[in-house]
Design a protein that fits this description.
The protein is α+β, with helices and mostly antiparallel strands and 379 residues long. The protein is 27% helix and 27% strand. The protein has 2 domains: 7-234 and 365-376, Conserved hypothetical protein from pyrococcus furiosus pfu- 392566-001, ParB domain; 238-340. The chain is built from 11 helices and 21 strands.
């Protein structure tokens, strides 16, 4: 039996709107979805936008901004340790309004083999190396990771939140719980298996940093913990773009030519039984539904796993169907591979089996907003 995950309150570092300006102008998505165009927009929104911390040109720039903002009162430190209850209101890609709730706290870092926190995706060494340089420079947990648990979603207080922000269609509200007994009750509702939903690179980087430092101050990561049964939990697909040629598929897959566009093709893809992998292949002027045979094992029926075995070259990722179509039509991609999102049950089965999906197999929507709460490595 693996270890049980450990949770703690923390003394948050946060923006003071009297010095920083409106909170909506200083928040951002996590670094891994910030395009160059979005980065420029965030930089223009405020001289204190957190993109200067989470996505700097050089790590030392982030460290300098962090020190300056703390000195000037742009960022202030909470006096008391607390957990925070989080509510996110958003509209999903299907046009439906949803609400996701969770608890923001420190979670003890453990190697995966301990069984306290389980991954489901592979990671990229280059991305982790860049995040490690940043972590060494700022010594602060800048963005929470998203973790799933088996307990119930938390109840929210009947009062106004302490912090509120809207960004890119997501309204986030945060309630501070600094009473020790109330914080313990909030953490006590987190139960069962802890799975990393989003933030594998940040988790593994923080673990590497802790192994370097080898002290209790670096032993925790900042996380938003959400119930796997939360009605607002949404997974989107992450499609593949290939710059190189597509391998020959004849004899390995059933192929059906489609006349409609990508959206119609995805409707057809959604009708394929989930016990078998499938994907939509987009090439210039050609749309094909590709189906594999049922497979055994925890990766069975996972579209990204069968694509991963094709050994494509120049692979890029996008959650956008429109971008995938445009990249193929413009010639910037040889082909696009449109996939279905894994289900929560698939994610859990892979994690519990000790397997890992190919990188970027899941996109838990929406991404957690960065810039609401920071947590220095000093507790």
């Amino acid at each position: 039996m693996g270890r049980v995950a450990q949770f703690k309150p923390f003394r948050a570092l946060r923006y003071d709107e009297r010095a920083a300006g409106p909170r909506d102008q200083v928040v951002a998505p996590p670094h891994d979805v910030i395009t160059p165009e979005l980065r420029e927009r965030l930089l223009a929104a405020s001289p204190y936008n957190c993109v200067r911390l989470i996505g700097p040109e050089k790590p030392e720039e982030a460290a300098r901004h962090l020190a300056d903002w703390k000195r000037d009162g742009v960022l202030v430190r909470e006096d008391r340790p607390a957990v925070w209850l989080l509510e996110e209101d958003f509209v999903g890609p299907d046009g439906l309004s949803r609400t996701r709730t969770g608890v923001v706290a420190r979670v003890r870092l453990e190697p995966y083999r301990a069984g306290a926190v389980l991954p489901h995706e592979r990671t990229l060494a280059k991305a982790k190396a860049a995040r490690l340089e940043l972590l060494r420079a700022v010594r602060t947990k800048l963005s929470p990771v998203l973790l799933l648990h088996d307990g119930e979603p938390p109840g929210l207080p009947d009062r106004d939140p302490e912090l509120e922000s809207a960004f890119d269609g997501v309204r986030s509200r945060l309630w501070r719980i600094d009473d020790a007994a109330a914080a313990e009750r909030a953490l006590g509702g987190i139960g069962g298996r802890i799975l990393i939903a989003d933030g594998h690179h940040r988790y593994e980087t923080a673990l590497r940093f802790h192994e370097e430092e080898a002290n209790e101050e670096t032993a925790y990561i900042l996380a938003a913990l959400v119930s796997r049964d939360d009605p607002g939990l949404v997974i989107l697909p992450t499609h593949r773009l290939a710059a190189g040629p597509v391998p020959e598929l004849n004899g390995r897959f059933r192929q059906t030519s489609l006349d409609g566009g990508a959206a119609e093709a995805l409707d057809r893809l959604g009708l394929v039984p989930r016990d078998r992998p499938a994907f939509v292949l987009l090439r210039p002027g050609v749309t094909t539904l590709v189906e594999g045979e049922p497979e055994p094992g925890p990766l069975a029926g996972l579209d990204t796993a069968v694509i991963d075995r094709l050994s494509l070259t120049g692979v890029r990722f996008t959650p956008s169907i429109a971008e995938a179509e445009h990249e193929v039509a413009s010639g910037r991609a040889e082909a696009a591979f449109l996939v279905r999102p894994p289900t929560i049950d698939q994610v859990e089965a892979v994690a519990l089996a000790g397997e890992k999906m190919p990188e970027k197999s899941t996109y838990f929507f929406p991404k957690l907003t960065s810039g609401l709460l920071f947590s220095p490595f000093d507790e």
